[in-house]
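Hello, quick one for you while I still have it in my head. A protein chain has come my way and I'm curious about its shape. Can you walk me through what the tokens say about the fold? No rush at all, and the record is pasted right below.
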Amino acid sequence: MNLEKYLIKKDTDEIIWKFAFLGTDNIRNQRFQELADLAEPENWTSANSNRDNNILYSYITNTFSKAFELGDSYILVTPNEDFACFNTGLLTENGEDIICLFNTYDSSPDYHWHLSGFKKVSDWDFMSHFSKTPKVVNFFSNPADIYFDPTKELIKNLDHILNDNFDRFSSKLQEKGKPYINALLNQALDLTITKCKRNYRIAVPQYYKGKITYLLPVTLDGQLMSLAIEEINGRYRVNTIFTVEMAYKNARLLMKPEVDWLTSATKNKKE
């Protein structure tokens, strides 16, 4: 099946929006809340977000992009092209796959597809249209790739972090200047590596820009942030720095993060 034919010209990096109309804000928010309620209990909202289920939205849009890249068997279309679907990779509390279902969108001259909703794999709405279940997206093929080795040499690419991602630091840190932050980063990273040698679970794998990299926590004057580490030719390089909320979204594509430093990103301000 040539999935490319369904894409419309739209100025967005989110492939799902080129493939299907996800609904008006209210309807889309309702659909994603229905998915949050259907799936195993999980906090899908960032601590600093004014938008409910922003983590879940990021998860679905990125999972769809990977499914689209993988093509047949990951995105299924019925023979008469009236329904399409992909596997969200999420489960109900009782372990059923949750499927994202699209139907045709007659109200648009551009879009062929419209987000119908999220269904359990056992639901009639899914089974009556599809004779098989779409495959679950995998972001890595070798399980060993998700483990960080703290004994490898680590190159600190701090020029890029301080020059190109300076706005990610708090205003209080920015006021103290780059030399101050540089000293803090070096000290904090060395401490994190020392801790990783005693507890490998501190480092969290993430999927970012098409590959597996690693997230390491650093605390800078009380601000918890995350450094992204990439393996290059047998060594590691510090690539960039994320807020904890940014880091959580990337990590959630692979698995539900369970380490305290990262799950703090989902503690809702209303709690």
